[in-house]
From TrEMBL:
The chain crosses the membrane at residues 12-36, 56-78, 85-104, 116-137. The lineage of its organism: Bacteria, Pseudomonadati, Pseudomonadota, Gammaproteobacteria, Enterobacterales. It comes from the Bacteria. Keywords: Membrane, Transmembrane, Transmembrane helix. This is Sugar transporter. It comes from Gallaecimonas pentaromativorans.
Length: 143
């Protein structure tokens, strides 16, 4: 199967490649988060408690979000229609993880409003990937 399709605009191809790189960074971040513990002794006690109390389902949601996001990005890059479904799963993972962080753990109280920047960026980028995958399906850029 050829990944070249002359009907795809250049911005779409660039977007797909950038999203593969972005999602690879997400997988690496997840691996560091799940497999290694930072030196908690260097963190303030409130931060230590927040990190130590994270439930398994929040960590799992993080993993689902980044692995499904990477699968979606690869599918988009390869012109596969499965990208949309992968991105839906990724969005669900993002929402569950952010529900824990900001709804259950109330990390804003501990980390401050500055901690919103990255989660909001992740949410916006996840939605953008989903919308581009939907557009690609409508325009016939994926099959």
């Amino acid at each position: 199967m050829s990944i070249e399709n002359n009907n795809k605009p250049l911005w779409f191809t660039v977007f797909a490649w950038v999203m593969v790189m972005w999602n690879l960074l997400g997988v690496a971040t997840f691996a560091l988060h799940a497999l290694s513990k930072p030196e908690l002794g260097r963190l303030p006690p409130e931060h230590q408690a927040l990190y130590a109390s994270e439930p398994w389902w929040s960590v799992l949601a993080f993993g689902v979000a980044v692995v499904a996001g990477l699968a979606g990005a690869c599918a988009l890059m390869l012109g596969r229609r499965q990208a949309f479904g992968c991105y839906l799963v990724s969005l669900a993972g993002v929402l569950v993880q952010q529900f824990y962080s900001f709804g259950v753990a109330d990390s804003l109280k501990v980390l401050g409003t500055g901690s919103l920047a990255m989660p909001l960026f992740v949410l916006v980028l996840t939605l953008a990937q989903l919308l581009v995958a939907k557009l690609a399906g409508k325009r016939g850029w994926v099959g």
